[in-house]
User: Fold this.
Amino acid sequence: MNDPASALPPARPCPICGKAVETAAKHKPFCSPRCATLDLGKWLKGDYAIPAVEPPDDFDPEAEDGEGEGRGEGRGER
Ligand SMILES: [Zn+2]
Assistant:
């Protein structure tokens, strides 16, 4: 019952293909270099796919700031 192999954590499924990954696998947490490359590609693709968040055309930072101040004063007077 003192088998060193049984002391190792259970194999986890490869996040790419779902295959069980051997605890001694070189490309953990992936089952193979191919899956490691696929994961890297996914990250790069996702990075480029993120749409740029742009403010609307009528967005004016200064106007918003003034509006905030005005609201505060209005409440104080009331
Ligand atoms: Zn895999």
